[in-house]
Amino acid sequence: MIIDSHAHLDDKRFDSDRKQVIENIIQSNIDRVINVGSDLTSSIASVEMSQQYDFIYAACGIHPHEASSYSDEVEAELEKLLKMGKVVAIGEIGFDFYYNRSPKEIQEEVFIKQIHIANKYKKPIIIHDREAHRLTLDTLIKNKKNDIQGVFHSYSGSSEMIKEVIDLDFYLSFNGIVTFKNAKKAQEAVKNTPMDRLLIETDSPYLTPNPHRGKRNDSTNVIHVAKAIAEIKEKQVEEIFEVTWNNACKLFKL
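User: That's the sequence. What structure does it adopt?
Assistant: Structure tokens below.
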């Protein structure tokens, strides 16, 4: 069984051929996809896709890029979505201090509000953490309830940070970056991630793995991610598929 734990199949880059892309995913024996929202519109689209396709599940949340769009009305709509079937997480949420498309203080305020929503609805959290490792960890430590789990998607922290992530009872997810020759930090993190905390993803349409780097990404390429991780960890790819499937099912209660 194979799962892509983080994709954006609602992205506009799929507008011209989305049905064909989804059919290709099905034909490639990808058994589950978590489609992740980044604003209210994409969160609604994710829920609609989950209702249309049995193998797609949804996550709903406001990305740090979109934090400035957050309001009481948006929060109310998010809470409505989280009550619907097949919505398995809140996300992606967190910090992005690389682009700073929303002011840092607003990113922090919106992140904390959404952690509290996750606490309320007992949903796991999908974390976006770019150049904000310490603040991300500290914000989670201070605000999340002990029984709330989650995942650092597209993990970009150090190998030393992994222990703190696990202490939070979180998972680490890796994507096409691990197939890049110069991605030594990500590959070292894969090596140091315990198998019972490992997830795989594509983050499609972004971060296309080798050998298709430079082209639009989609969930079929999660197979290349798994193969790269298997090589790094000196495991059979079938074991990576099995472990990451079981981990995702446990985290997202699939």
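The chain has a mean pLDDT of 97.
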